[in-house]
Amino acid sequence: MSTLLEREGLLATWRRLTNRDEFGQCNGNELDERGEKVTNSQPSARRQIVVTDVFCQITEQMGHLAAMCVAVTTPMFGIRVPDVVWMPCERWESFDHDDPVPFVPDLCVEVLLDTDRTQELDRRVESYLGGGAREVIVIDQCGQVQFWGQEGRRPASVLGVSLSLEPMYFDEGTSSPPAVH
């Protein structure tokens, strides 16, 4: 059984893999807590459109301090790559941008269209919240928007995020339009 790697060990493994295969360029690769490479499937065009739409809405509502597919270091679950992250300017300025963010940003978003992340969703949400995220937004395959915080699922965003998503990109099965205010 492999042992858990500390942050420096994860970073060393990340840097070694980055030099070899452009790891971290939004290609779905991550590291688990043991430093083992986790390969996620490439996002479909519709998932990329939804991620871009969410990114644009968050930057409009919270300022241009959001980013897509940024690797973040979680304290318990390795280096993960949320679809969208947001944090205040002073946090962006506090680390070397060639490495994964050494902490979890204030807001992390996961879009579950065409992804293998659904199976470990609880673990991903826990890793972001356990690493200091103030909020995690999950958008499921039907376009339903869920807000999560330390206390569990929330009825609305405490950060004031309101997402309006185009239903045509989601699987049928939702009884109401996938907009949350």
- Broad structural category: alpha+beta
Q: If helices are DSSP runs of H or I spanning 4 or more residues, what is the number of helices? A: 4
Radius of gyration: 16 Å
* Share in helix: 25-40%
Q: What is the fold named in CATH at topology level?
A: tt1808, chain A
**How many domains, in number, for the residues?**
1
Strand order of the largest sheet: 3-6-7-8-9-10
Q: Give the beta-strand count.
A: 12
CATH superfamily: tt1808, chain A
Beta-strand fraction estimate: 15-25%
Largest sheet: 6 strands, mixed
First CA to last CA: what distance? Answer: 46 Å
Low-confidence stretches: 20-26, 174-181
Which CATH architecture is right? Alpha-Beta Complex
Morphology call:
globular
- One letter per element, helices H and strands E, the order comes to HEEHEEEEHEHEEEEE
Q: What is the CATH C-level name? A: Alpha Beta
Tell me, rounded to a whole number, the average pLDDT: 84
